[in-house]
Q: What sequence folds into this?
């Protein structure tokens, strides 16, 4: 079976990182949060979108075209 080297390397790294924490998701998440705090990168957050925004756009599109999905 054909195997992509990049995918294999990514999966191997993921497995190695996960095994450092005995595959404990809570510990992995805590480590990621700690790394984020230590990082000098600027945090960017976007305002939440309304749940109905997509539905309203779809209805507007249907009304303008005369077609319904």
A:
């Amino acid at each position: 079976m054909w195997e992509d080297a990049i995918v294999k390397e990514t999966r191997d790294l993921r497995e190695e990182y996960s095994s450092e924490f005995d595959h404990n998701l809570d510990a992995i998440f805590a480590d990621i949060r700690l790394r984020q705090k230590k990082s000098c990168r600027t945090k960017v957050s976007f305002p939440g979108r309304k749940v109905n925004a997509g539905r309203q756009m779809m209805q507007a599109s249907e009304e303008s075209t005369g077609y319904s999905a």
About this structure: Residues 1-39 form one domain.
